[in-house]
Amino acid sequence: MQKLLRHLRTSIGQRMAEVISLAACAPLLVLFGLISWQRSVDESGRMQSELGARSEAAVSGLQSRLAAARDVSAVLVAGASGRDDRVLRANVIVSPAFSSVTVVPADHNGTVARTLMRSGAGEDVLRNVDTAALVTAQFDSDTSIFVVRRIGPAAEARLAIFELDRHWLLGSDPDQAPTFGLVLVAGAGALLTPPGFPRDAVLPTGVSAQFDPAAFETSAERFGWQAGGREWLGHSALLQLPSGLVAPQSLTVLTMQANTPGALLTARGVLITLAAVLSLLLAVGAAVIYLTGLYVAPLAALQTALDRLGRHQQARLEPRRADEISDAVDAYNRAATRIEGEFRSLETLAEVDRMLLAADDVEAIVDGLLERLLRTTGAASSCIVLLDPNTRSYGRNYFLTAQRAAAEMSRVPIDAELLPMVENSPQGLTIARCEEPRHSVIAPLREAGSEYFWMWPVNVEGDLRALLAVGFQDAPSVVPDTARQVEEFAGRLAAALSKQARDAVLYRQAHYDGMTGLPNRLLLADRLEQEVAAVAGGSARSALLFVDLDHFKKINDSLGHAAGDQVLAIAAQRLRGCVKDGDTVARIGGDEFTIILRQIADPQAAQVVAERIVHSLHKPVSIGGRDYRIGASIGVTMLPDDATSAEDAMRNADLAMYRAKDSGRGRAVFFEPRMRDLKITATTSGLHRALERREFALYYQPQFASSNGAIVAVEALLRWQASRGRPRDPKEFVPAAEQSGLIIDIGAWVLETACEQYAEWRAQEIAPARLAVNISAKQLDSPQFFGLTESILQRFSIEPSCVEFELTESVLAASAAGDALERLAKLGIRIALDDFGTGYSAMNYLRQHPIAVVKIDRSFVEDLPADGASATLTDTIITMAHALGKEVVAEGVETAEQLEFLRQHGCDFIQGHLLSRPLPARKISTLLAQRPSVQESLPYTATG
Ligand code: C2E
Ligand code: MG
Ligand code: MG
Fold first, then answer.
1. Can you give the pTM of this predicted structure?
2. What angle do CA 778, 779, 783 make, to 5 degrees?
3. Is 913 in the pocket of ligand 1 (CB under 6 A)?
4. DSSP structure class, residue 577
5. Which pLDDT belongs to residue 136?
């Protein structure tokens, strides 16, 4: 019962109970309705016929009682003697027919007598003693009926008025419910009912008016009405009066209460109905119990099982005996087994994926896979063989047994015939017997006790790269699903192996220099950090060497980049050959190499290696059949003696290397702390790379003729935008370049670039008369300078007379400069004395040297014309220079007053921000194109 209730509480049980009840009740209700209807039809027929029969009986009874009343009244009247009516009354009392008698004179004015006379029957009664009249009279609301006869002789006629007992006449028991009632209508409106007859409740209202016997045409009629909340039936019949009784036309009506539908429900009917309903309920209940037992319970179980399955929980259903549900249960169980298998396999694969992501080397991946391989297949042992990519005839075999915690590795030879067989069996290859040497791969598994084997290939991008095998002690129990899962493992391993290979390539690309194969700056930084940490505080020492090739740029420029690359590769090889295995040789850019020498006993040991390198790199390099010599300058710093951070170590080695360059190249110099104090060094180290990195540019500042404002010359001014940081000021880096000797290379670049630009202006026919280039003392000192100048001028077809070299007074102080100046002047180049007045200002120089132009320094011009001393000095310089046949240029002219002063005092040329700032070549081109030729006279206008 509880089970039933539980089932009924489920929605399926409720729905089932509802449907079954409805299906059972509907026909029952229809049947019930039909039966009721049939019964009511029958009942009405029965009632009609009963009414007819009763009416007939009642009428004949009434007729016979009226006849009896006629006769009894005749006897009583006959027995009445004289005028004494007492006997008569006494006799009436004993007669059941009459309730009273009254004797009145014939002309009596009483109600009955009057009615009798009015009806016309009075005459008959008075004339004939045998005739009696039936008279009705209304008293209050009640109607009484009388038999009237003459009493005594006709001469003194009196009337005997007998009142008929209505109870005797019409019957009816007042105590009984008025189911039937006989009503006598003696003339219009004279309605007689049995005493106690509930007229209002039974008869239709206004019945007296309706029941006019004259209106009834047929002798019998049936009719029905509603009164007192009930339904009534009536049967009327015209009354045949017995002879000797005169009365108006009379009518009898028998009334009968019709059976209501309620009344139809007899006790038996109720019982039957109850029994029917009960049996129906029982039947419905039984059906529900049966059906819910059959379907609801298994459906509920199926639902629960599906829920559990959805939550990845084991959910198998008990098999049932064969019925419709058992098929569903079987189908469900099959699906559940499959889905559970898929879940498990997905979980395992997800676990494998997580493991692969976490593992950082092949060993970790192989270990993780072997362990899961055993678990998934239930095998006794498993192995993964990674084939040697070069030969494929050997491989590293990692194997694991169920008893062991960690995999073992051995190198195994691989049978050439085995590989294609496995390769062509992606679903796995079974090996029933391990034969040596064909199956050397699975030999370790056999040694661990396995007899049957299953093997899968691992293909990476179409290449067999590994084998995967499991061993069983008994015939393999690997079901297809498990085999498929191992196939997935093989796929995962393939992906992991290819990722490893890719990672290795990426790592190489990120950490090694593509051209020389040496570690790059990134890896060097890493290793240096490690080295600094390793030697920190300990007794161990190491050395960091900064190697810069000498003259590499020349080879690159003259022989091309391919030759340059060749030189770098050779240098890299030689460097590697000079150091031990554990040492690091890195290329950190251009022709710069860095070396970490590990476990160096003392600086002398480092010195030996450094010298070996200098020696090795000094050997000729053969390119295109010709021998070239490169060399190397090396800076050496000791760790941890000189530096405790990688950054410091790098800077030290860099500084030492510049010292080596400065002191003549082709040598190794050890870092000394005082090198840090040399102000120029920081700039120098960057300058060294600036040329290679093309960080230099030239700006040009025009010089204007003071006579007419025409541009007569442009001065090339060097600009340096280092790749990092702000643009550098030439006043800061030119002295640094001079000190380090770099100015020789840089100056050559300036001369070449400026001449190239001048040639271009020439080609565009906008070139000014002269090109001025600043030359430093170091350049002038350089033995190659003259030759270089000549060759550049030739290359660009520029006459020497169009070129002006600007030199400062300090240059002239060096005695060696004289000869160089002579040679240049002879060639035709104009020499200008720059910044005149700031140095020794010895007028002597003007006389001794072939100087064509004097440039008055900005510091004098600055204070013009207000400062008297400056004005005098400027005036003196101009006068003197002119006296010696030199031209004068004023530098740094910023105001119109300065310009005016200089013009008035005969200064030939004007240079300064007032007229034009130094500008890039492109803007100078525009300026030159706009300016009229030298001959035209123009007012001065500012240009930029
Ligand atoms: P410098 O040869 O005397 O060049 C004139 C300097 O005065 C330039 O400075 C120029 O920009 C600046 N100047 C020109 N007009 C005015 C002005 O109206 N007001 C002010 N305040 N300055 C003006 P810059 O370019 O900074 O060069 C500084 C120095 O660097 C040069 O002095 C020169 O000695 C040296 N230098 C520049 N380029 C080279 C080069 O290619 N080789 C060598 N050896 N030295 C160079
Ligand atoms: Mg200059
Ligand atoms: Mg100057």
1. 0.41
2. 100
3. yes
4. H
5. 85
- Give the residue from 827, 768, 832, 840 showing the smallest Cα distance to 799: 827
Give, using CA atoms, the residue closest to atom 12 of ligand 1: 892
- Per cent of the chain over pLDDT 70 is 91
Q: Is the pLDDT of residue 222 over 70?
A: yes
Q: Tell me which residue has tokens 């400026």.
A: 754
Burial bucket for residue 712 (CB in 10 Å: 0-12, 13-18, 19+): buried
- Residues ≥6 apart with Cβ < 8 Å to 818: 812, 848, 849
- Alpha-carbon span 608 to 858, nearest angstrom: 53
CA–centroid distance, 905 to ligand 1, in Å, is 24
Residue of 719, 746, 755, 774 to test ligand 1 pocket, by largest number of atoms within 8 Å of CB: 774
Q: Which residue intervals of 560-645 are DSSP H helices?
A: 561-578, 603-618
Smallest CA separation from ligand 1 atom 15, residue: 912
The answer to whether residue 176 scores a pLDDT higher than 70 is: no
Q: Mention every residue, 6+ apart, whose C-beta is less than 8 A from residue 397.
A: 383, 384, 385, 409, 410, 411, 412, 441, 444
Q: Which atom of ligand 1 is nearest to the CA of 738?
A: 44
DSSP-assigned letters across all residues of 175-206: TS--SEEEEEEESTT-EE--TT--HHHHSPTT
The best mutation among 776, 891, 911, 919 to test binding of ligand 1, ranked by most ligand atoms within 8 Å of the C-beta, falls on 891
* Ligand 1 geometric centre to CA of 892 (Å): 9
Strand partners for 466: 386, 458
- CB of 918 sitting under 6 A from ligand 1: yes
DSSP SS3 for 299: helix
> Which is more confident, 90 or 516?
516
Instruction: Match 């249960």 to its residue by tokens.
Output: 329
C-alpha closest to that of 317 among 304, 30, 376, 295: 304
Beta bridge partners of 890: 856, 910
Residue 769, pLDDT > 90, answer: yes
Q: What does the alpha-carbon distance between residue 373 and residue 848 come to, in Å, rounded to a whole number?
A: 97
Q: What is the DSSP string of 816-871?
A: THHHHHHHHHHHT-EEEEEEETSS---HHHHHHS---EEEE-HHHHHTTTT-HHHH
DSSP output for 51-107: HHHHHHHHHHHHHHHHHHHHHHHHHHHHH--TT--HHHHHHHHH-SSEEEEEEEETT
- The 10s digit of each residue's pLDDT in 59-73 is 888 889 989 989 888
Q: What is the distance between the alpha carbons of residues 9 and 3, in angstroms, rounded to a whole number?
A: 10
d(CA 300, CA 218): 77
